[in-house]
Structure to design on (291 residues):
């Protein structure tokens, strides 16, 4: 695997680049590019108008994301620096001031107990039979930025895989996620609700478009870890139907992005009058009861 190109210049050629997360999310492609997150935000239950609003105004930092961001940084040994706040909570003015100052400097604020929790999570993951091998230090590249152009539409696409192990055969893309529940049933629901099948298909597209898979078909693996002790780990590879549906949703999102970009019109859920039935489950129940 060739080393990614480090750049602070606009991205005008397809390839794998090394850049900060801030630069990646600011989108270094002149005219704009579409990420997996953006593609998911274009489709229901979101809509193009919400996608455009987020693009124009960004998203303020949220405390509930701090733990996951910090866990990523520790597990991948890459990412933002953690600032430990020596407090039990943020009820005091001093603790809140330290938290806000850390965020202003681009750091991830964690309470002391949260910092211990993140370290325990990383230890549990390293001791997992499969995940520990996938994330073994020195065996891959963390968070390199991929840029390629969609052939049917000309839309620029981008992705930032958490971890790309150096291939010893089949190329594997690894994504690390923290969750409250990592049971198979809970993960199935999370995959559908958050569009993780779209994310997997999107990243695999990028790997193949940039010739990073070699002669074999690449695989995408999720590593889910619980945020509460004993910090259980579940490693998941989605089946072919899930990936096919994710790819089809991505194709619709790319086409929609191309149309909205060309027209400058980013519609909401319905520009006219929506004609709606009851939810299917309610219609079935109430038809039996009342009709």
């Amino acid at each position: 695997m060739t080393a990614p190109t480090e750049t602070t210049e606009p991205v005008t050629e397809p390839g794998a680049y090394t850049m900060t997360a801030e630069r990646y999310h600011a989108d270094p492609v002149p005219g704009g590019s579409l990420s997996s997150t953006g593609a998911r935000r274009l489709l229901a239950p979101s809509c193009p108008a919400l996608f455009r609003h987020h693009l124009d105004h960004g998203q303020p930092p949220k405390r509930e994301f701090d733990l996951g961001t910090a866990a990523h940084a520790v597990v991948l040994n890459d990412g933002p620096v953690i600032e430990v706040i020596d407090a039990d909570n943020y009820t005091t003015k001093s603790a809140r001031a330290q938290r806000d100052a850390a965020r202003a400097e681009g750091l991830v604020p964690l309470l002391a107990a949260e910092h211990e929790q993140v370290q325990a999570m990383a230890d549990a993951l390293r001791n997992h039979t499969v995940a520990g091998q996938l994330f073994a230090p020195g065996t891959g590249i963390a968070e390199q930025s991929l840029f390629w152009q969609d052939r049917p539409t000309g839309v620029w696409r981008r992705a930032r895989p958490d971890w790309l192990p150096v291939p010893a055969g089949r190329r594997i893309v690894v994504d690390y996620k923290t969750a409250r529940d990592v049971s198979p049933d809970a993960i199935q629901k999370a995959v559908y609700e958050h569009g993780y099948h779209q994310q997997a298909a999107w990243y695999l597209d990028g790997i193949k478009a940039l010739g990073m898979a070699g002669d074999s078909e690449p695989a995408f693996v999720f590593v889910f870890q619980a945020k509460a002790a004993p910090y259980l780990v579940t490693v998941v590879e989605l089946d072919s139907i899930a990936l096919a549906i994710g790819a089809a949703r991505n194709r619709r999102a790319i086409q929609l992005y191309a149309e909205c970009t060309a027209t400058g019109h980013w519609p909401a859920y319905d520009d006219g009058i929506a004609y709606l039935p009851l939810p299917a489950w309610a219609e079935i129940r109430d038809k039996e009861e009342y009709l």
Residues 282 and 288 are 10 Å apart (CA to CA). The chain is about 45% helix and 15% strand. The mean pLDDT is 92.
